[in-house]
Amino acid sequence: MNAFFSPTETIILPCDPKGIEKAVQLIRKGYPVALPTETVYGLAADALSGEAVARIYQAKGRPSFNPLIVHVADRTQAEHIAEFNEDALALADKFWPGALTLVLPLKKEAKIASIVTAGLDKVAVRMPSHPVIRELLKICGCPLAAPSANKSGSISPTTALHVKDSLDGKIAAILDGGVSDKGIESTIISVEADEIKILRPGPITTEQIAAATHLPIVEYKANGQNPVAPGQMASHYAPSQPVRLDVSKKDEDEWHIGFGKITGDDNLSSSGDLTEAAANLFSALHKAEKSGYARIAIAPIPLNGIGKAINDRLGRAAAPRN
Ligand code: TXA
Ligand code: MG
């Protein structure tokens, strides 16, 4: 096959033994496959193969300086890739498998393709809990590099159809494992000798991390130039229309995403439950994008707990585009 193969149509595979076998075959041949994780759908390729990982960047149109998360089957595999200090071990014990990504020093002997870390000396690792990616990790026997399975800069996918809408014709296959129940990407932290930096808020809250470590926690704010968390670009997760935040009463040309008592045209959680709102967030943005309205307005979302991650994503959706 060509180095960069462009399928004309992307097939959706069921998560049965045949579908899984087909996905494994494609990954072994070096072709990225979209698959469900508990946070969002990922576009997965063998993290040891530079060529396979290059196809992820190509399919997403992702800037090559933006590194990828390496997904692992177990702690042994993680410890072959990254240097864990005691604090990192304690956090992995507490939150893995699950929605926490640890940025740690890359082991010198790790065989991860350098395109995965974009040449950085740190690597982001996560042990996911979703049974489908766990099964793939087990059968493939290699760590899987996987960004969210969407065109770079657009809204993250929480269903197989979201992936198809965004990457149809650009990837060979999508494994359909239903809806990603957390609905928002993993929390990313950098575990350093004397502090923990929160690089991206997510389903595991700052409060939960604080309760599991003695280190001070610093919330890292990207300034657009600093490459520590290259994916933290101001405009990200952006629908095609302009987005206005903290809106209680919409204008006529706006599709209104509500929360709690602010009903809206759609509602993230009518009971005001932030976990439910996180799970519905990207679906609601996809729906808003397809609504035919010229602009999108979003009700105020409280900043506590996972509300911080929701507001982080909304801030990027509303940021001025380049
Ligand atoms: O929940 C998730 O994390 C999903 C699922 C598929 O696992 N993945 C995901 O990947 O959200 P992605 O590529 O969309 O976002 C990963 C973020 C990017 O902002 C990237 O810059 C950052 O992780 N990152 C990756 N490696 C890094 C590193 N070595 N140092 C700092 N930031 C890193
Ligand atoms: Mg992403």
Written overview of the protein:
The chain has 322 residues and is an alpha/beta fold. The protein contains nine helices and 15 strands. It has helices at 17-29, 50-60, 75-81, 86-95, 131-140, 160-167, 206-211, 274-289, 307-318; strands at 11-14, 33-35, 42-46, 69-71, 100-105, 122-126, 144-145, 173-176, 187-191, 196-200, 217-219, 243-244, 254-258, 266-267, 295-298. Strands 1-8-2-3-7-4-6-5-9-10-11 form an eleven-stranded mixed beta sheet, with helices on both faces. Helix 1 (17-29) packs across helix 5. It is globular. Magnesium ion binds next to loops.
Mean pLDDT: 91
> What ions, cofactors and ligands are bound?
threonylcarbamoyladenylate, magnesium ion
Number of helical elements: 9
Number of strands: 15
Trace the largest sheet across and list its strands.
1-8-2-3-7-4-6-5-9-10-11
Please summarize the sheet with the most strands: 11 strands, mixed
Shape: globular
Briefly, what is this?
The chain has 322 residues and is α/β, with parallel strands linked by helices. It has helices at 17-29, 50-60, 75-81, 86-95, 131-140, 160-167, 206-211, 274-289, 307-318, and strands at residues 11-14, 33-35, 42-46, 69-71, 100-105, 122-126, 144-145, 173-176, 187-191, 196-200, 217-219, 243-244, 254-258, 266-267, 295-298. β2 and β3 form a beta hairpin.
